[in-house]
Amino acid sequence: MSMLGHAFTHHQPQNVALRGSQGQAHAEFVHKRVFSILLLHYSILSAVTGEIDAARVAGIMAAKNAQMASALAAPVSASGS
After folding, report:
1. What is the distance between the alpha carbons of residues 19 and 14, in angstroms, rounded to a whole number?
2. Taking the domains of the chain in order of start, what are their residue ranges?
């Protein structure tokens, strides 16, 4: 049994057995709740990863632009020596 499934089996009292449609409704509710939590986690992780990737691209572009500007300016300042 998975860790997630194992975690939810202990929350049900031992003397109460859900049977039939009530048990199925409870299982569907738990499944939807777990799925919603996992989807939210994925959405947050995806957003953070996207921000990191965007920052990385912006940083690389800024570094390349600064390097090009420095390379173009270097011969001008060196010509007077």
Report:
1. 13
2. 22-75
